[in-house]
Each structure stands twice: as structure tokens, then as C-alpha cells.
Fold this protein.
Amino acid sequence: MQKPLRKVVFVDRDGVINVDLWKYVESWDEFRFEKGALEGLKMLSEAGFDIYIISNQAGVGDGIFTEAAMWQVHEKMVEAMKKYGILIRGARYCTHGKKENCDCRKPKTKLLEKAVTGVNFDKKKTFFIGDKSSDLEAGKNFGVHTILVRTGYGPKTEKKLTEALRPEHIAHNLVEAASIVIQNS
Ligand SMILES: [Mg+2]
Ligand SMILES: [Zn+2]
């Protein structure tokens, strides 16, 4: 029997959900939600989207912080979101070092593939929201739509955009990105 059709959205973490510190977020006390992030995620959650966080955390593989510390930040973040009424369906982190040439570090698509294994969803109605070109490229490689947000690295990415990487939409922040996703679902 066909599994029920799910509404899926992929969201990058650093620079989209939380403030990019221009270094890794190594502990919960360094974590700050981006302006509009909780509101935007709540809009998606309430609209029935399954939210998947897709994030490169090479600081683990490169020995800057531990995987346990990364998961601790994750747990606290999910807890704070839950208090706000946001349900996160899943999160996939690439913990390999930048030079490991793994098959999951964005712009590769293994994290996205793993996140939605066995999930029935329509790629044509699915968006990847991110602030870096590696997010846009991962989304394109995976065959979903892309939204660049102007938080985090977004303004720098926007300046360097090539025709091949041009996203379908550019949004001010996660609230605006969420409206676009909801309008196009
Ligand atoms: Mg980012
Ligand atoms: Zn990896």
C-alpha cells in the first residue's frame, strides 16, 4: 500500500535557524535563534510540514568540538522549539571533516536522502531553505526547489550567485521563506 503523502521541507541550521557566529556553535550558551526563525518554523509546523534539519558540522570531524556536544546543542534546540510549538521531524548532521571527502557533506545529497528514506513526498513541492551556496547546490542536486535566506551567510551568497545556483526565491528570513513554502505547497 502507498504510504500517505507527506509535506516535506529541508532547513539548514547555522545562519538560518540560529545566528552564525562565523565559527562553530560549540555549546548551547552560544546558540541564539535567528530573528524570525521560531516564528517561521512554527508556521511550517502548523501548516503540516515535516521539517528536516540538514546541517554540515565539520567541526566534529576536524576536532574542534565533540559529537556529544553537537547532539547536546541539538537536544536543547529541539526542546526550545517544542516549547514554542514546533515539531522537528528529523535532523541529519554531517560530522565528517572538511577534507574527508565523505558522501554526505553538502552540497552532496546523502543527508537529504537519508532523512526521507521511506517517506512518500513530492519533490516538486519540496523546498530547501539555506544561506550558503552549498545549500542551494544540495537542493538542486536532490531535485527540490531552493530558497536563499538573507540571514547568516545569505547576503554574501547572494553577491556570489551564479546562474547555475540561482535559487527560485530569495527571502528576508525564515518567516518570509515559510510563507513562500506554504504558498507553493
Ligand atoms: Mg548555514
Ligand atoms: Zn559527511
About this structure: The helical segments are 37-46, 58-61, 67-83, 110-115, 133-142, 154-159, 174-183. The chain has a mean pLDDT of 97. The pocket of magnesium ion (ligand 1) is lined by residues 12, 14-16, 130-132, 152-153 (CB under 6 Å). Strands lie at 7-11, 49-56, 88-94, 127-130, 145-149, 169-171.
